[in-house]
Design goal:
Radius of gyration: 31 Å
Strand order of the largest sheet: 1-2-3-6-7-8-9-10-11-12-13-14-15-16-17-18
Strand content: over 45%
Distance between the termini: 73 Å
Shape: globular
Number of strands: 18
Structural class: mainly beta
Order of helices and strands: HHEEEEEEEHHEEEEEEEEEEE
Largest sheet: 16 strands, antiparallel, barrel
Number of helices: 4
């Protein structure tokens, strides 16, 4: 039996070897180079040539600033200011976008920032006041968050685009695009913790006509820094943008999210915006935002308005100003309630570089002290 197996293997090896020789001979056979042969051989057309593989795109932004504190006393603690001035690299955004084909695109975006978490606490006894105080040690390193990572499905049906994953959220994207100075100061809803700029879920955008854009979404409602809550509640939201005339933008947004076991503690949000933009010259925007039962707490309502405008002296030089007024029901949110004033000038030597000199003042509703700072801000795109 052993000999028989050896013989079969030997025969098979000869067969494969012979086949290899014949194939090699066929491949090595010289081609006919006569004109007739050249004309007879089919030539690939330009349409049949394979398309080059789609390439991804790296993009991002860098936010940096330097400030000088005009006050000697900190308005929040009513103690001496610990930092009179400071240079800051506040944020670095890094994204990668890849076009799978004309219909599908993947996009991932990292948010790098310094969050200063406390790594240790030291207790000390004050013999004079006979109290125990805590001194915290902060970690000043930069931390990276996965802000967005999603699939964009274009033309899922005519004029419809579906984003799936951890997606850019749409609550204040119209306002942020109109304000266009995120590197200087956040939009009202972002600054006051009303909505997040990214969330996990699905967002569908529809543009049935040029003057109308409709956005609906179902997300976990926790933003991009937290996972789903223990109740598994979801946020249902919708937004409508209308451009009745070329330079006028109107936008309305609303959402609803149950928090807890009953709908009595459901959180809801409404935002309204109107903006008028004269391209390359001036624009003005006004928004009003309100959130009821924030975090599911009864009577924890916050609301406010934000008014901002810009004027181009020349193409590269712009002056801008903004006024915010924030308040809460029964003044429960005193840390953020108050008035904010921002005014400054922006210089943009090229499209991807923005530099600003501005003044920022916050006057809290509770207390007599204010925060007054002079800023140098920068935004650098890549």
């Amino acid at each position: 039996m052993k000999m028989r197996l050896i013989n079969i293997a030997t025969i098979l090896s000869f067969v494969f070897a012979a086949g290899g020789i014949l194939t090699s001979s066929a491949q090595e056979k010289p081609q006919d180079t006569t004109m007739g042969a050249a004309q007879a051989a089919p030539q690939p057309s330009a349409q049949e040539k394979p398309k080059p593989k789609s390439q991804g795109t790296v993009y991002g932004k860098i936010y940096a600033d330097w400030y000088y504190n005009l006050n000697d006393t900190d308005y929040s603690s009513k103690k001496a200011v610990t930092k009179k001035s400071e240079p800051e690299l506040t944020r670095v955004y890094l994204g990668y976008k890849y076009d799978i084909n004309e219909q599908f695109t993947t996009d991932a975006f990292l948010d790098v920032q310094r969050v200063d978490p406390a790594t240790s606490a030291t207790a000390a006894f004050d013999t004079t006041k006979k109290t125990v105080g805590l001194t915290f040690k902060l970690d000043d390193r930069y931390f990276a968050y996965l802000k967005t990572a999603y699939l964009s499905w274009k033309n899922i049906f005519p004029t419809g685009t579906l984003n799936l994953g951890q997606v850019p959220y749409f609550a204040f994207d119209v306002m942020e695009g109109f304000w266009a100075h995120r590197y200087i100061y956040q939009t009202f809803m972002d600054k006051n913790g009303i909505e997040s700029s990214a969330d996990l879920g699905a967002v569908l955008k529809i543009a049935p006509i040029d003057l109308l854009k409709i956005t609906v979404g179902v997300t976990d409602g926790e933003g991009y820094k937290s996972s789903q809550d223990s109740y598994g509640d979801y946020k249902i939201a919708g937004g409508v943008q209308v451009n009745p005339i070329k330079d006028l933008t109107l936008y309305a947004y609303g959402d609803w999210m149950p928090i807890g076991k009953t709908t009595d503690t459901a959180q809801s949000t409404v935002a309204l915006f109107a903006g008028y933009d004269i391209p390359d010259m001036a624009k003005i925007g006004l928004e009003y935002d309100i959130q009821m039962k924030q975090k599911g707490v009864t009577d924890h309502d916050v609301n406010g308005l934000s008014l901002y405008g810009m004027y181009n002296i020349i193409k590269q030089l712009e002056v801008f100003a903004r006024f915010d007024l924030a308040s809460s029901k029964s003044d429960w949110n005193t840390a953020l309630d108050g008035q904010t004033i921002i005014a400054g000038v922006q210089y943009s030597p090229v499209s991807k570089v923005k530099l600003a000199l501005d003044y920022q003042r916050f006057t809290p509703k509770a207390g007599s002290l204010t925060s007054d700072r002079i800023y140098l801000n920068g935004e650098f795109d890549y």
